[in-house]
TrEMBL record, chain A:
The gene is gatB. Belongs to the GatB/GatE family. GatB subfamily. Allows the formation of correctly charged Asn-tRNA(Asn) or Gln-tRNA(Gln) through the transamidation of misacylated Asp-tRNA(Asn) or Glu-tRNA(Gln) in organisms which lack either or both of asparaginyl-tRNA or glutaminyl-tRNA synthetases. The reaction takes place in the presence of glutamine and ATP through an activated phospho-Asp-tRNA(Asn) or phospho-Glu-tRNA(Gln). Its EC number is 6.3.5.-. This is Aspartyl/glutamyl-tRNA(Asn/Gln) amidotransferase subunit B. It comes from Motiliproteus coralliicola.
From TrEMBL, chain B:
Pfam families: GatC. GO terms for molecular function: asparaginyl-tRNA synthase (glutamine-hydrolyzing) activity; ATP binding; glutaminyl-tRNA synthase (glutamine-hydrolyzing) activity; transferase activity. The gene is gatC. The lineage of its organism: Bacteria, Pseudomonadati, Pseudomonadota, Gammaproteobacteria, Oceanospirillales. It catalyses: L-glutamyl-tRNA(Gln) + L-glutamine + ATP + H2O = L-glutaminyl-tRNA(Gln) + L-glutamate + ADP + phosphate + H(+); L-aspartyl-tRNA(Asn) + L-glutamine + ATP + H2O = L-asparaginyl-tRNA(Asn) + L-glutamate + ADP + phosphate + 2 H(+). It comes from Motiliproteus coralliicola. This is Aspartyl/glutamyl-tRNA(Asn/Gln) amidotransferase subunit C. Gene3D superfamilies: Glu-tRNAGln amidotransferase C subunit, N-terminal domain (1.10.20.60). One of its GO terms (biological process) is regulation of translational fidelity.
């Protein structure tokens, strides 16, 4: 029998508000401990929560972006548990009436097909503080700066069937929240945290198997690795006739090991009930329509537009449309060189290679979209060839040629990279190469005509070398072939 | 519905309350009286009544998203039993 993997995700997304969900304390990351934890966040007696309107708007924005039902009446509830970094002894969350109801997103799979993944709900809640377990004389240190930061918890249906699908879904949600500007999506700082529910069942079976929840997945790579690891673990147990224990597991991305955190028997009994300190949140169609009017172009729509407007392939359009920074870069570069495919290749190739190896975001690229576009325009108008363009790009990356307009042209001029298209000059170089390579010419003449094409490479290389890479390769190829074939007759 | 000893102990644990063994029967009686009252209330037909999340007939007011609080760490930590490096210190928690 074949096993089927069933995966559902819970994503905790920190909303990019200035102040906390229920207090006027700042949410800025990286402040000194407890300097952004006010009396409300500390749950001092007599304090009361007041709901942040921007957190509400951001949640509604997300709901509209995934085509979800918006809760016109939503209710905050208390989720009760004791932990030192949760000062109130409960987390204010939502239970029966979340702000966002059933919705969906479409994910693109490697085989080119599209799959719809259901979103069960998304609700607003407050984040907890941080516990620091380093040794403080045998005690635990508590920083409550994060306590009260607004979170949107996005719960998916158990619709995913592989680690790849789960990652594609998480990336899609990530690109939606960052495009909407409702979260910075920074996984390393905990702004976008994924918990993964995994279970196995025999293929074709209706009923779900017992699931485990794996937490602490702070990169997409870790998520993929953790799911694969958990699927293998469950498969081993089930094939040995064992049973899966419903439990919470913690994955360590550095050691690539997961361990059990708590099992269901010791699971918390949260005793949810409506929060008496907060009234029901009521919104009407006007409120929702006003937010709808502010929605930016979303990744799916942009994907479609890039295919139609620029004639890009499905894959290229998908890569370039996911994030607004990348999309804007590509569009600006295209505008400069008037060749979308050329711009797409360079953004996804040379530029992204350089960004990755320097761990830079596209917004921080040392080569601006205008500069790249102007460089590409010089390939397009035959001023330089592709090889020289890479040299120019390297120079731009290092900040040569100045930062302003015309940087690419200045570098081409300074390095003498202008392409030689004068056929007289190219022919002269070819003649020299041929004269100096008698043995190779003899081999060429002796070879079967159909094998000669491959032998051309040697001469190509020599001519390009002689021109310091500036000869037009197409022209060299054509002239070289004519000249060598003439010797064969 | 009636609560037994172990359920009383569980409720006390969830609320982090320390209770005397000898008081458990009394707590069980008291809680059972409350449950009996709830049972009685459940006899009322409420099928036509919309559940309410709050007894006040009002809706939540919203606050503009603005930082209005300043750093009061020194004052707020004045009463804390133990602090260090700006952190509150609590008995070791290991999960």
């Amino acid at each position: 029998m074949e096993w089927e993997t069933v995966i559902g995700l819970e994503i905790h997304c920190q909303l990019a508000t200035d102040s906390k969900i229920f207090s006027g304390a700042s949410t800025a990351f990286g402040a000194e401990p407890n300097t952004q934890a006010c009396a409300v966040d500390l749950a001092l007696p007599g304090t009361l929560p007041v709901f942040n309107d921007n957190a509400l708007k951001m949640a509604v924005k997300f709901g509209l972006a995934i085509d979800a039902q918006i809760g016109k009446k939503s209710v905050f509830a208390r989720k009760n548990y004791f932990y030192p970094d949760l000062p109130k002894g409960y987390q204010t969350s939502q239970m029966d009436d979340p702000i966002v109801g059933i919705g969906h997103v479409d994910i693109q799979l490697k085989d080119g097909t599209t799959k719809r993944v259901g979103v069960t709900r998304a609700h607003l809640e407050e984040d907890a503080g941080k516990s620091l377990h380093e040794d403080y004389h045998g005690m635990t240190g508590i920083d409550l700066n994060r306590a009260g930061t607004p979170l949107l918890e996005i719960v998916s249906e158990p619709d995913m069937r592989s680690a790849e699908e789960a990652v594609a879904y998480a990336k899609k949600i990530h690109s939606i929240v960052t495009n909407l500007g409702i979260s910075d999506g920074d996984m390393s700082q905990g702004s976008f945290r994924c918990d993964v529910n995994v279970s196995l069942r025999y293929k074709g079976e209706e009923e779900f198997g017992t699931r485990t929840e794996t937490k602490n997945l702070n990169s997409f790579k870790f998520m993929e690795d953790a799911i694969k690891l958990e699927v293998e673990r469950q498969m081993d147990i089930l094939e040995d006739g064992g049973e899966i224990t419903q439990e919470t597991r913690l994955y360590n991305g550095d050691t690539k090991v997961a361990r059990s955190m708590r099992s269901k028997e010791e699971a918390n009994d949260y005793r949810y009930f409506p929060c008496p300190d907060l009234l029901p949140v009521m919104i009407d169609d006007d409120f929702i329509d006003a937010i709808r009017a502010t929605l930016p172009e979303l990744p799916d729509a942009r994907h479609q537009r890039f295919m139609e407007q620029y004639g890009l392939s499905d894959y290229d359009a998908g890569v370039l449309s996911g994030y607004s920074d990348t999309a804007a870069y590509f569009e600006t570069a295209t505008e400069q060189c008037d060749d979308a495919k050329l711009a797409a290749n360079w953004v996804m190739g040379e530029l992204s290679k350089h960004l990755n190896s320097n761990s830079l975001e596209i917004a921080d690229s040392p080569v601006s979209a205008e500069q790249l576009g102007q460089l590409l325009a010089r390939i397009k108008d035959d001023t330089i060839n592709g090889k020289a363009a890479k040299q120019v790009f390297e120079a731009l990356w290092k900040g040569e040629g100045g930062n302003g307009e015309g940087a690419a042209d200045a570098i081409i001029e300074a390095k003498g990279l202008k392409q030689v298209t004068d056929s007289g000059a190219i022919e002269a170089m070819i003649d020299e190469v041929i004269a100096a390579a008698t043995p190779q010419v003899e081999q060429y003449k002796a070879a079967e005509p159909e094998k000669r094409g491959k032998m051309l490479g040697f001469f190509m290389g020599k001519v390009m070398q002689a021109s310091k890479g500036t000869a037009n390769p197409g022209q060299v190829n054509k002239l070289l072939k004519t000249k060598l074939d003439a010797l064969c007759d | 519905m009636s609560l037994d000893r172990s359920e009383v102990e569980k409720i006390a644990h969830l609320a982090r309350l320390q209770i005397n063994e000898s008081d458990i029967p009394e707590y069980a009686d008291n809680l059972n009286n409350i449950l009996a009252l709830v049972d009685q209330m459940q006899q009322v037909d409420t099928s036509a009544v919309e559940p309410m999340a709050n007894p006040l007939d009002a809706v939540q007011r919203l606050r503009p998203d603005a930082v209005t609080e300043t750093d009061q760490r020194e004052n707020l930590q004045a009463n804390a039993p133990a602090t260090e490096d700006g952190l509150f210190l609590v008995p070791k928690v290991i999960e």
